Amino acid sequence: MLGESRSGLSRRSLLGGGLALAGMMAAVGALDARGPGAVAATRDLSAFRAAGAVRPAALVRAGQKFVYPESWSVRPFSLSSVKLGQSVFTRALNQHLVLYRAYNVDKILAVYRRNAGLDTKGATPPGGWEEYGPNPDAQRWGPAEYTRGQNAAGAGGCLRGHYGGHFLSGISMAYASTGEQALLDKVNAIVDGFEECRAALAAQTYNGAPRYSHPGFFSAYGEWQFSALEAFAPYGEIWAPYYTLHKIIAGLLDAHSLAGNTKALALAEGIGHWVFSRLSKCTQAQLDRMWGSYIAGEYGGMNEVLVELYWRSSDPAKSEFLEASKLFTLRTLVDACAAGTDTLNGKHANQHIPQFPGYLKLAAELHDDHYLQATKGFFDMVVPGRSYAHGGTGEGELWGPAGAVAGDIGPRNAESCAAYNMLKVASQLFFNDQNPKYMDYYERTVLNHILGGRRNNESTSGPENLYMYPVNPGTRKEYGNGNIGTCCGGTGLESHVKYQEGIYFRSADQKELYVNLYLASTLTWDETGLVLEQVSSYPEGETSTLTVKTAPSGPLTVNLRVPGWSRGVRIEVNGQAIPDDVTPGTYAKVSRTWAAGDTITVRIPLALRAEASYDRPDIQALLYGPVVLLASSSSTSYLKVSLADRLGLDGTIRRGISKSASNVFTVGTLTYEPAYNGKDVAYHMYFQRNEPSVSFAGQDSGVANPKRAGSTLLDDVWARAPFAGRSAFLDAVGEVTATYLADGVLTSRNRQKILLAAGRAPIDSIN
Ligand SMILES: [Zn+2]
Q: Which UniProt keywords apply (predicted)?
């Protein structure tokens, strides 16, 4: 696996090995001639509703595809409501569509079919973690056939089925984005294949009884991983059974909502009932220990999909889904985060991040503020104090101490699954609380980490998505074999076919629109009639123009995101600057009755700036607007970079730089590529800022840059930028040098040299 090739050990690498148990097991039982309905009738499961054919179709059709809780004051648009135009994101979308159009769904179905004893139609599994493993036939074990420790072949293959769930989500998203019939056909073929496998599993017997505990059970391996988890089997004996199940249910829900497949909803309902039937028998202490178990208890967003299922389902026993969702609560984590007590150090990041969208949906459904406060507290523990410049978090999949960013740089920072899931947390928090910080984080992460994680390379075999997006000096992205079958390859199947999801949101009362991302696109808002076209080359260009193509039926307030890092943003409506303040880190509001042809122009000046890491002022990244720039270099120690001499009156880096149309910069001897470009070369995300002498715009004073209390004279001068003009700049140099003189860290002779250099500097002509 990829992790092994980089560092010798992946925490997800397969433990164990050795004894093969193949052959120990009897061959898969013959299909039970009674069929799933008959099996169900023999059970004392009063709340059970079978998936598939026994499910009344009328009830399924009554299910709602998109349900949003009343408490969400802001809500998303469906993926099919927003069409992407040409932008820096286009290449990743198109490259993924090549994969989806070419990929044979029999490969996706192979692991499920073999497990169910069905013909695999000559297909082999995708590979990577999505493989049969050393013991696939034995691993059809039902709960009654398995005793703790029986799987001595290691966890190889024990995550199989997860990638197929992601694939079903991704291809459903791709269909919603394009409307292509061939993609819809593949969605339906996968769901049909899943249902065939589920029915075959439900018909299997062991010692004359149904092999599995519930006819809703569906998986690409036996039920034993779930029963073994309840007996506290560790990672290595099992992998992460509920993690896999989450991906399958999420895929089914996406096939339902995005591709209209009602069979998918019925399958998910059957799984939901089965999950409830298992977990409702567990004690609270047992659940606490299971969900606290490293990797083995990793359940992805099981709690989220079960609430979603509860919302969409019209099943009379759907309350089981909500009850099951609550059973996934990791109480120690929720309580600590709600109390603002940071317990993340040493925890596996992506084991825990996906739980929070589930907690937010539980908060909404149960009107339980505790879950909401926990998620807000959690977000603030990760952003900014555990976030790298591109929005990534973690080292070697684990979190470090609070506030350690530069202090936690290692060889394997920033797992891409973690970024994928943090975007869900950020957007769902925004639905509750329109704090612009959530969308500032969203833009940074989706543009740099997610888009940059997609290798700029077409493939018909894999997602070409990185695993880690590391930040250490001279590092490389973990592309490996394109991450076919890994967790990050799985989330990568989804990330690049849903870029439209974060551009626009709407208020619950349908009276306000939020424009979060400046990204070429067209929104069709059915409830108001608005059709809005955004033309933009941002972040390669500065101006985005939104044109009302079809006017909404009534007055509408448009909230335009003014990025927290921005300066001098100008917004015009039909050529007139809006009268209200345009303040960085807010939404500018425009309320009016709109007519077809009305335009909103948003100009966001883009400039180079250095951004210090959270915990080390001297360890910095270079950004151009929202774009993180990566210095091309294979040196494995921090590059020393001086920038003070290049600053203009506004405090941005302006002197002696060159820029290409595609945001490739040259600053001094270094070339910087945008983090989003998907190149596979050695790079530095961070450098060490080094300002040895006091110099302004090419005028070197010859005086060593004096230090004082963790700061330097140049830091203190430029902390006062932007300057209104040359005299304001000279005043600042005069005042700061006076305080250094008074503190005894600058002689009056050297102060004079600095003032002379500042006076000679052509700083007002830099642009
Ligand atoms: Zn991952």
A: Hydrolase
Please tell me whether residues 25 and 146 are part of one structural domain.
yes
- How far apart are the C-alpha atoms of 637 and 106, rounded to whole Å? 47
Query: 640 lies in a domain?
Result: no
Question: Do residues 604 and 541 lie in contact, with contact meaning Cβ atoms separated by under 8 Å?
Answer: no
pLDDT of residue 63: 56
Give distance in angstroms: CA of 418 to centre of ligand 1. 7
Give yes or no: residues 30 and 161 share one domain: yes
Report how far ligand 1's centroid is from the alpha carbon of 306 (Å): 22
Judged by average pLDDT, the poorest of 31-45, 52-66, 84-98, 141-155 is: 31-45
- Distance from residue 71's CA to the centre of ligand 1 (Å): 31
Residue 382's closest CA among 444, 473, 433, 327? 444
- CATH number, position 561: 2.60.40.1180
Q: Do 653 and 667 touch, CB atoms closer than 8 A?
A: yes
Does 11 score more than 80 pLDDT? no
Q: In total, how many domains does the chain have? A: 3
For residue 761, report the distance from its CA to the centre of ligand 1, in Å.
Answer: 50
* Average pLDDT for 681-687: 98
Residue 709's pLDDT is: 86
| CA distance to 10, 396, 609, 628, per residue, from 6 (Å) | 9, 11, 32, 24
Q: Are 704 and 598 within one domain?
A: no
Q: In DSSP terms, which residues pair with 39 in a beta bridge?
A: none
Q: Is residue 426 pLDDT above 50, yes or no?
A: yes
Determine the distance separating the centroid of ligand 1 and the alpha carbon of 665, expressed in angstroms: 31
- Cα(460) to centroid of ligand 1, in Å? 21
Same domain, residue pair 705 and 599: no
492 Cα–ligand 1 center, Å: 9
pLDDT tens string 114-129: 999 999 999 999 999 9
**Could you tell me if residue 442 is inside a domain?**
no
Average confidence (pLDDT) over 660-667: 97
Asked if residue 470 belongs to a domain, the reply is no
290 C-alpha to ligand 1 centroid (Å) = 21
Question: Of the candidates 580, 603, 626, which is a domain's last residue?
Answer: 603
Mean pLDDT value of segment 584-609 = 98
Q: How far apart are the CA of 487 and the centre of ligand 1, in A?
A: 4
**pTM, full prediction:** 0.92
Closest to 32 measured CA to CA, from 21, 44, 20, 40: 40
> What is the arithmetic mean of pLDDT over 271-289?
98
On whether both 561 and 704 belong to a single domain, the answer is: no
* Pairing state between β 640-641 and 687-689: parallel
Whether 17 and 124 map to the same domain: the answer is yes
Which of 249, 278, 305 corresponds to the end of one domain?
305
Determine, yes or no, domain membership for 291: yes
Q: Which domain holds residue 101?
A: 1-60+87-305
> What is the whole-number distance in angstroms between the Cα of residue 162 and the centre of ligand 1?
12
- In terms of average pLDDT, the best of 19-23, 35-39, 373-377, 761-765 is 373-377
For residue 448, the SS3 value is helix
**Residue 557 and residue 704 share a domain:** no
CA–centroid distance, residue 303 to ligand 1 (Å): 19
Q: Which residues in 48-76 are b (16+ Cβ under 10 Å) and which e? A: bbbbbebbeeebbeebeeeeebeebebeb
Mean pLDDT of 529-538: 98
